[in-house]
Amino acid sequence: MRLDHLQIAIPAGGEPGARAFWTGPVGMRETPKPAALAGRGGLWLVAGEVELHLGVDPGFRPAAKAHPGFAVPDLDALAERLEAAGHPPRWDDAIAGRRRFFCDDPFGNRLEFLEGRA
């Protein structure tokens, strides 16, 4: 079994902010949604083998606890880009041997970024 994709909720009309965040400092690439789903709004993004779907939720509430964890090749560079874009990293050392930080997307969804394992 493997994870095919992950979906995070965004508020209605949040696509421009989400696009700027995910394709900007995070560095993902937007991919077209299937025509049958395009009218629902949201975005689909990819980076390497990771596929992320951002779905519009009319009753949106940010996920303050539940979160995805993204392993990235250069954690420090990502932290710098996020800081510069106004999304400061919150470093956490609770897991021995794993460098990681949390930050929030433009809508308050909690995200975790971890140093990729070799």
Automatic annotation (TrEMBL):
InterPro entries membership: Glyas_Bleomycin-R_OHBP_Dase, Glyas_Fos-R_dOase_dom, VOC_core
Ranges where the VOC domain occurs: 2-116
Domain of life: Bacteria
Stored SUPFAM superfamilies: Glyoxalase/Bleomycin resistance protein/Dihydroxybiphenyl dioxygenase
A Pfam entry, by short name: Glyoxalase
Protein name per its UniProtKB record: Glyoxalase family protein
